[in-house]
Amino acid sequence: MTTLPKNIDHPCYHNDNAARIMLEAIFWPNGPTCPTCHRIDTVIEHGGKKSMGPGWYWCRECRENFTVRVGSVLGRSHIQLHKWLLGFRLYAASKKGFSAHQLMRTIGLGSYRSAWFMAHRIREAMDGSADNVARSEAKARLSKSMKPISAPRSAPNGRSSMTSAGYALAAASK
Ligand SMILES: [Zn+2]
Questions:
Q1: What are the tens digits of pLDDT across the range 86-116?
Q2: 63, 82, 119, 169: which one has the fewest Cβ atoms less than 10 Å from its Cβ?
Q3: What whole-number distance in Å separates Cα of residue 41 and Cα of residue 2?
């Protein structure tokens, strides 16, 4: 399993393309996977003149473009990927956790709103993956604050895989 590097000098914490490659390895251990139909064999990488840039894939079955962000905890935010990875790494390394204010200062996020959003998502994913009471509490919070979280195959836009992607990132941060 791919895990996040311990050294925060690693490019994946400072460069968005390096972060994207790291996330693909974590979320898609078997190769780029369609967020809608969850197949691998129908997916091709965009290339040539029609390329939309690195990290874009196309599912022949669903006829949709996607990137590693789609359907994950990161999908509905404008926060850059490397900042997400740094957030997970710092949270995993800290014994007491940290506040949204600290996150904003340390990572250099543009607004408290972004920092609050990120801090909550990280906490939910990290605490939710721990095998303790916090797990059920985090799940309760998740089901209140986000929908849908179940039935990933039938959910529109594949957004429901947010939690599994968050847990995968949490596990990779340990
Ligand atoms: Zn598909």
A1: 999 998 888 787 889 999 999 999 999 999 9
A2: 63
A3: 22
CA of 159 to the centre of ligand 1 (A): 13
Q: Which of 117, 102, 131, 103 is nearest to 162 (CA)?
A: 117
For the whole model, what pTM was predicted? 0.73
Closest CA to 73 of 170, 163, 172: 163
State which residues have CB under 5 angstroms from ligand 1, the bound ion. Answer: 34, 36-37, 59, 61-62
Q: Could you please report the per-residue DSSP string of 91-131?
A: HHH-SS---HHHHHHHHT-S-HHHHHHHHHHHHHHHHHHSS
> Ligand 1 mean position to 160 CA, how many Å?
15
Each residue of 37-92: pLDDT tens digit? 999 999 998 865 666 778 999 999 999 999 998 877 777 778 999 999 999 999 88
Q: How far apart are CA 87 and CA 108, in angstroms?
A: 11
In this structure, how many other beta carbons lie within 10 angstroms of the beta carbon of residue 58? 19
Instruction: Please give the Cα distance from 39 to 4 (Å, whole number).
Output: 25
- Distance in Å, CA 34 to ligand 1 centroid: 5
